[in-house]
Amino acid sequence: MNREMETTSKQDASVGLPLSLIDMEIKVGDRTLMSDTSLTIPAGKITVIVGASGAGKSVLLRTLAGLLPRDGESIRWRGDIAIGPAGPAEHQQQPALLTRVGIVFQQFALFDELSPTANVQFAIDHRRDRSVPSSQSAQAWVEELGVPTHTSVSALSGGQKQRLAIARTLAAAPDILLYDEPTSGLDSASGRKVAELIRHTQTIHQLTSIVVTHDYVTLLPIADEVLLLDSASQKLVRIEADQWDVIPQRMQPVALTTPPDDAPTTTAWGASLTRFGTLARQGTNDFFAATGSAIWIALCLPLELRPYFPRVRWGLRFVLHYLRLVGGPSAWFYLVLAGLIIGFTSTYFTFKFLPYQAYTQPLLIDELLASIGFALYRILVPVLATILIAARCGAAIAADVGVKRYGGQIDALQTLGVMPRTYLLLPIVIAFVIATPVLEWMAMGAATWISLVTFMATHPNEGPYFWEQHFYRNLHPHDGWLLMGWKWVLTKNLVCGFGIACIAYYQGLAPKNSANDVSRSITSTVLWTTLYVLVVHFVTALLEF
Ligand SMILES: Nc1ncnc2c1ncn2[C@@H]1O[C@H](COP(=O)(O)OP(=O)(O)OP(=O)(O)O)[C@@H](O)[C@H]1O
């Protein structure tokens, strides 16, 4: 990189805003990662935060980005984070509220379903202050960072993804730019290139940049300031430039908690029983916690579903994305096939196993056809269709949201100032409410058609008019072209669609620490959505008949 530019950046580093920590304390469970820490990270410079593995650097970064609530389930923090020049508290602003903090995630957290330029456009469209025109277009940002535009995000190389992540973060016009482990998983040559890119970006845009890393060897050369998250003293301390070469000695490995020596000794049986007791207690607590939070979520749902999109254009785009996922052609195939199976079996076997066919059939044929029509329309097809929608579409949504949670895209949405419910929950609910009745109607269409075909094949002496007259007999249209009981069928569809949407979304949204957590959430979505659908059908059957 051009040394002259580098020097200029270090001299002119007066742009950007400082970030102050005031009496900060962060705890994970019972362990304190940082306590009583007050310091200011200077404006317009690169501050590198180093620390041993497990010291809490990523937790600190997520706290600075406003991604962690003060009283989270496992992570709690207190104190204040203020952005702006030192002065009266009212002149300083909290990052989480005003989304002034941009973050370049370790896993990049790009939106795979959008093109590289659309990723940047999304950030431009969600800038905090949209009354001021964007400094440059999305195309200009991707060109500046050297990202190929005519390829999908998933086809970009790791380095290109990182450049795109930086372009997207810069396009949102943050005052503070955070980098989470930017060189992790790279060889030393690629790591140096990333370090140069960070310095280059800093030189051009003059933001307050904070880089969290354990790779001090690669990133110290671009640092203006170095802070050490010291696991021994549990403090974030500034390391003066003349001390930088002793950083490796000061990076104390994180002490693991060991049980006290004077813990009472127990027999193997005793230990097993104690362990069983603890697990049972924990399981019960988890169950009540989960039930409690599910009830709370259900109570808050109407508020969460305010029909509000920060940008209508993007809202519609997400609705279309989820409509494709929930009600796309593969779902049509599924539902039509299910309709064909149930329509054929119900018609064919009802007549095939009729006892004393020669006598009973002439007497019962019209009654049986009317019953088949009624059962298919009011019960069989709605139950089968909604169970399939619950399993197939619920799993698809849990996977989509779960991957977004695990891959950090949900965090990325939040740092861009977008609440996940507005672009995820609301579009998902809209998609299910539209797609469920349409898919069910397709299944019913297929069941009706195959029932007619089967009847014609097995009763060649009766014409299609006979079938039609009796198949619909118990469904006589009372209100125009709609069949009798359509309100019940529609109600079941809507209640099922709405519930499947919410269960799948919240299962996907739950914290994910591994790919295994994503697959577990898909499995439990299938379990809970199908159970929910069965309960809905059971309860409506009691009311309906
Ligand atoms: N969501 C979470 N729930 C519970 N514990 C967590 C969570 N996130 C992090 N921790 C714990 O907090 C501690 C600090 O984790 P963190 O990821 O911040 O470390 P780090 O300094 O970034 O380490 P590394 O350099 O190895 O990534 C670890 O003991 C980790 O297990």
Please write out the topology:
Elements: H1 3-11, E1 19-28, E2 31-41, E3 46-51, H2 57-64, E4 75-83, H3 95-98, E5 101-104, H4 116-125, H5 138-144, H6 158-171, E6 176-180, H7 188-205, E7 208-212, H8 216-219, E8 225-230, E9 235-239, H9 247-250, H10 268-304, H11 312-327, H12 329-352, H13 357-406, H14 409-415, H15 420-458, H16 464-471, H17 486-509, H18 515-544
Parallel strand pairs: 3-7, 3-8, 5-6, 6-7
Antiparallel strand pairs: 1-2, 1-4, 8-9
Explain what this protein looks like in three dimensions.
One of its GO terms (cellular component) is ATP-binding cassette (ABC) transporter complex. It comes from Novipirellula galeiformis. The protein is an alpha/beta fold and about 550 residues long. It folds into 2 domains: about 5-100 and about 175-250, Rossmann fold (3-Layer(aba) Sandwich); about 305-545, no CATH class. The chain contains 18 helices and 9 strands. The chain has helices at about 5-10, 55-65, 95-100, 115-125, 140-145, 160-170, 190-205, 215-220, 245-250, 270-305, 310-325, 330-350, 355-405, 410-415, 420-460, 465-470, 485-510, 515-545, and strands at about 20-30, 30-40, 45-50, 75-85, 100-105, 175-180, 210, 225-230, 235-240. The strands form 2 sheets. The protein has a 6-stranded mixed β-sheet, with helices on both faces. Strand 8 (about 225-230) and strand 9 form a beta hairpin. The longest helix has about 50 residues, at about 355-405. It is elongated, with a radius of gyration of 30 Å. The termini are far apart. The relative contact order is 0.10. It binds adenosine-5'-triphosphate. Adenosine-5'-triphosphate (ATP) binds near residues 28, 51, 57 and 214.
